[in-house]
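Progress narrative, work stream C.
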Amino acid sequence: MARLILFNKPYDVLSQFTDARSPSPRATLSDYVKVPGVYPAGRLDRDSEGLLLLTDDGRLQARISDPRFKAAKTYLIQVEGEPDEAALEALREGVMLNDGPTRPAEARRIADPELWPRNPPVRFRKTVPDCWIELSIREGRNRQVRRMTAAVGHPTLRLVRQRIGEWSLGPLAPGEWREVSV
């Protein structure tokens, strides 16, 4: 039977089990998940946090990470500024990035979510407001969410993936994981 692990990837941790960089290797999945034979199904940037799925089943890994299967990925994003309805509508329709247009997304402004503190904290500037949006996409280009919010004039300050398809982060604290049945 396939194994599936839901992991809350902390900020500044690589989405892989080893780091070839030396002399000062960075934190990796192996610092948190001591389960042999599992691999990430998709990626989450080092400066992003939240849900990362790991599995030992190659077909499940492909189904989760391949955009053809259209598993929605939902993010909570703290952005610089306060997006108006036009900015949110642009995200919903899809924005033009340097590698082509994105697919339409679901986007809405949300109240500040109750999240764990980030270390280091997001920079605070008295003269620049910020707010949170929820964004769901069905593709996964390199740094796509960050590029999308920047394209509508609201750079990402903090990015937390909350859900992938039917799986959600739930009450997992950063660095915690749990196995679920597939």
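Work stream C, second folded protein:
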Amino acid sequence: MMNKIGEINFKEIKRISPSQFYSMKNCAYKSLLAEAFDKKPLLPLSPNAYFGTVLHKMLELIVKGILKGEDDFNAEFDRQVKALEEDLKQKGFGFFVPLKVKLKNFGLKKIQLKKHLRSESEKTTSLGNIKFHSEKWFESQDKLICGKVDLVIENENEIEILDFKTGAIIQDCLDDEGEIYSDVKNEYKEQLKIYAQLYFENTSKFPTALSLVDLAKQKFPVEFSEQECKSLFDEAKSLLKATNDCIHTKLFSANPKQENCKYCLYRPACSFFHKELETDFSFNDVFGEVTNVKKFQNGNVSVFLQNGNKNLIIKNFSSEKFDKLGNHKNKQIRIYNVRKEATEFVYSAADTTIIYE
């Protein structure tokens, strides 16, 4: 049975989180699709994304003081990885297992993560009037904006909000003169500023510092003003309302381009993206009518698609796909997560390749 998207039942998005804001701003339709499918992805995530959930959980346990030493850390890390690998197998993503082999930076990230364990001297200095609040839940008074802050440090009149990131925090940017410089990703800046306003709504105090911390324990401060935080907060609420209004008016729109669609897990359900695939061959997804399916002596299968005046070849499917693809001859299909070959319009199937009719 080929994967198929049935009728999409859109539902109102009840609230928006600071981490969701930037994505919704770039393409609100993606958020509507995620809500319609109960946030169950239509495509597999990258193994790094799955592993990132383990890293973030470990950071949470370290910050809360649950993991106090290296033995605790190693035992919990192994337990978390094993549980994730079992979950991946159950979801049909066993090709990601073992993560230790499949991920190039598995060992490095574990070493970096271990640096977050507090030393004895840090434990001593953390006493006194300083208060640590980890995984602290905040929501706006109207409950339209809410989220969980990784860590809040309160020290009398000094209040710092910290957000931990397991991936890259900075990116290369161009200044007005065309010179390259590094800066914190804009999405992370906006996320922290909305958290700052959330904190203010709940405590009547504004944080004095906002910071991002990476796995290597590097801290990246984020400059902000109270007005900036309030403006982004109001913008998030307006965006949520406008996005939900689309459901009632049926006037949907999307913004299909590489930076928005490349990692979108709901593109199999996006008609705007499908239209883009008809003429744009820059994506790692293909669309077309099946004209032929061939099985070779080594068992590999190739499928030939016709897209307008372009003939596409997708190679290296397993032999078990032969009948399924053959049954769709002269029918249109969409194939996601393929690899481009050196020859134009020739692609290879990968472990994460998924086919939808």
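The mean pLDDT is 91. No further action is required on this item.
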